[in-house]
Design a protein that fits this description.
Layout lengths: L5 H21 L12 H16 L19 H6 L5 H12 L5 H21 L2 H7 L2 H16 L3 E20 L2 E17 L5 E4 L5 E12 L8 E7 L2
């Protein structure tokens, strides 16, 4: 058997001392350690943060002192040339109805036009009543009644709208009135009791030009516009 020299004994003693020092340090809490990772708690924390984020509502930013006000007529000026009668009329409507936007109005008028044309062809009085003024409704219903009395039917297919341009706008008292020139394409034919075509052509797409006026009481909470006048352009 060999023997231990002084150097070997020294290193053994040093190793034992270092071991006990590390054990004391590693086994002791200093208060600055990170808590153990809990995946369930972390998941709940992320969910709570997401919910708080979803519940946050961004409020409109207040205008800083000296910051220019937003141009209330920007959409109108982009739609109709400034200083024209049409621009002035649209501005007057905007003054009475801050939510008014000419482009949005035209989009809605185009939808209403198609609904009215097809409701008239189908004799749909309920739909017409919601979209027409009393005077225009009475005229449409009278024409439908006359057609039904003769056992005539209109066969129609709406193709689309080529143009829908605002030609005039004005306030009449508390009512806003806007007139549009609408150019549409329609396949329409009127058949008699026997089914024979007495007007129009069921195979031909016809161009139809109408001048329609819509109105809305700006003092009312009802946001809907109604057709108040119709004219067919030659």
């Amino acid at each position: 058997m060999g023997f231990f020299d002084f150097g070997t004994i020294f290193f053994l003693i040093a190793a034992v001392v270092i071991f006990f020092q590390l054990r004391n340090v590693l086994g002791r809490r200093t208060g600055s350690e990170r808590p153990p990772f809990d995946p369930y708690t972390a998941s709940r924390t992320r969910e709570d943060a997401a919910q708080k984020s979803e519940n946050v509502v961004s409020l409109p930013r207040k205008r800083a002192p000296g910051e220019p006000a937003i141009d209330a007529y920007a959409a109108i000026d982009a739609f109709a040339k400034p200083d024209t009668d049409l621009n002035k009329g649209l501005r007057t409507i905007k003054d009475n109805d801050p939510s008014f936007d000419p482009k949005t109005f035209v989009d809605g008028a185009k939808m209403a036009y198609e609904m009215i044309v097809m409701a008239y062809a189908d004799g749909d009085r309920k739909t017409l009543k919601n979209l027409l003024s009393r005077e225009v409704y009475d005229g449409f219903v009278a024409a439908i009644g006359d057609r039904e009395a003769k056992s005539e039917k209109i066969q129609s297919s709406f193709v689309g709208i080529d143009k829908a341009d605002i030609v005039s706008a004005e306030m009449k008292g508390g009512e806003a009135h806007i007139t549009l020139r609408i150019v549409s394409e329609l396949i329409s034919a009127t058949r008699d009791k026997a089914g024979a075509v007495i007007d129009g052509d069921p195979e031909t797409v016809a161009e139809v030009k109408d001048v329609w006026t819509f109105a809305r009481d700006t003092r009312s909470r009802d946001p809907n516009w109604k057709l108040v006048a119709t004219e067919e352009e030659d």
